[in-house]
Amino acid sequence: MICVLGGLRVKASAESVADYRSDQRLIRMAADVASLAHALEGERDLTAIRLVRRKQEHTEGLTRLRRDVDGALGRITVLADASPAGFVQLPALAGNTVGNSLQILRSSVDETGNPFPVSAALRAYGDIISSVIGGLDDLDEAVHDPTLAQRMRSSAALSFAEDAVSLQRALVAVALERGTLDPKEQSELEKATSDRRSALDYFFVLADPATRRAFEETVTGRDVDESERIRVLLTNRLVGLTRSADKEPVADPAAWYAAASRTGDLIRQVRNGIEKNLSTTAEDRLRDVLSTVFLDSALLVLLLLITAAVTTAVARSITRPLQSLRSTALNVAAIRLPTVVKILEQSEGPPRAVCLRPVSLPGTDEIAEVGRAFHAVHTEAVRLAAEQAQLRANTNAMLVNLARRNQDLIQRQLQLIEGLESTEQDPDQLENLFRLDHLATRMRRHGENLLVLAGTDGSSDQHRPPAPLLDVVRAALSEVEGYERVTVGALPDLYLASAALDNTVHLLAELIENALRLSDSHSRVTIGCCVVEHGVAVVEVLDNGPGIPPHLLEDINTRLAAPSPPDVQASRQMGLFVVAHLAARHQMKVRLRPGSPRGTVAELRIPQELLLHFTEPPGQRTAPAPEQHLLTGSETNAFQPSPPSAAADTEDAGAVCAAQGSPPPLPVRTPGSLLRPGALPGGGVPETRRRAASLRSRLTSYQQGLRRGRERSRRATTAREGSSSAEE
Q: Basic residues bias located where (predicted)?
């Protein structure tokens, strides 16, 4: 507000400067107008005397007066042209009106062949002088300072009085030259006398006491009295107040002209004093206003600087805490809080305590309160994250406990079923026991799914020897329903590292079960494998189902490539969740692609780090190859990394497998044929109903093969541990 008021004051002072400069210009123009009127009055009076005498007298003086008139008129014109736009314009001086009228009048007066009437000349000059002096009123009204305007009006009144004295001088001089005046001239003389008296009365009303005293002290003396005496005497004689017999001249025309001129000069002297005083006063006031403007401007600038400094200090006192609060808030939002949440999410077991750096701002103002409130929000967010982590840990612990209990019960159930199978002789009851054994195995796998959902590794002892890939596939088949629909093609002689055995079996079981569930009950599911570049083994599970729409296929592959945290959707699509997380544990990759011409192919890419290649002389191989490898694996150091294939590592692993000699589609085998020693892959499966005895026989062979494999694996592990203890 102070700055606004100061600005308004400076603006008002600047306007006052402009007003006083305009007043100075008006005062100078008024002085020039008065000088022009004085010069015109002299030219008029001298022209009248010359016309009365009808002689070419006073030529030099008239020429000088006309030159003075032209000079004064030129100065006014130049000053008017240099005035700014909107400056007052004098109608009498616009368009050189006075100059044109003078040229015409002078030409008429100077004609010698046709004498110009004196009264006409006086009247013509009087009109020009009246129009010029009338412009003083316009100038007075344009002055902004009331005191200066009043003084200018008093100066204008003296100009009118001077004009009346000049006209009296001309008329009396004409009367003294001719000895008489015509009625019009007498009327003009009386009017001039009245105008002089009125102008002086108006002057005394407007003038201040000092100016009136100066007038009274200046316009006095013998010449003034003499001119007044002559005028009164002549007037009385003209109106018949004196004796007509008195023929003595009233006065000498030259004496009258000199006395009247002296009176006019005295009046003009007073007017010049007023004009000089006006100029001095206007200049002093302009100087004062300029000083005021400079002082106000300096004070305003100083005030603005102080205001700017105070504003800057206040702003910095606000912005610094705000910047600190902003940087802290951004740091908390982008780094600190996500880091704490990530630590809490990745922590195993109960979440550990997290030390939070407080968001502290000095002071007790609103910004500091906002900082403390933000710290409270940060603390609450961390507390909620810790509670969520604790809730997840509790939920995972409950899932693990339930899954472990379920596994224990299922394991006891399997042991009981195996005992019943070993003593059962009835084929029908044995078949039912096999089915029950199979269902219990599936239940155990679903319990392991809960462990995966809880983020726990449910694999068993990691010190077992590597197992053949064929045994891994067979173990996966034992955990799915409808395994008789699965055809296992030619598999490479690869062994899977012990650390990934259980999870790979689980992963393959999920893929096989998904293929069986999504395909027709009479169609077949084919399993094949090949080794591509960099020693990566690609296991393919091909079904002949209706396939998966492209947009769903892309979404599934995205979720397989980037496992998501457990949520409600994970419980609805447990297989997809388990496959993604199990593959991520061992850097495996799972991808689905459309089959040809129909169905879906699930690709499992096993990295070279998890694969071993078994080498032995060709004559020492016995059937079935994987079981012989397993038996000799614990006694010989024959496990080596799997050599890479010469084929390109492309996304279409099926084409690579076909290039390596696996016939597309994968070969179809008779279920259970590979379980018999010496059997070869191949052979179709008749679509006719098999007899129960044949089915039971195959199931019995399959289960016995599994038991033998498990027993041999346990014995090999026990033997290796015993040898290790003996060496120690």
A: 707-717
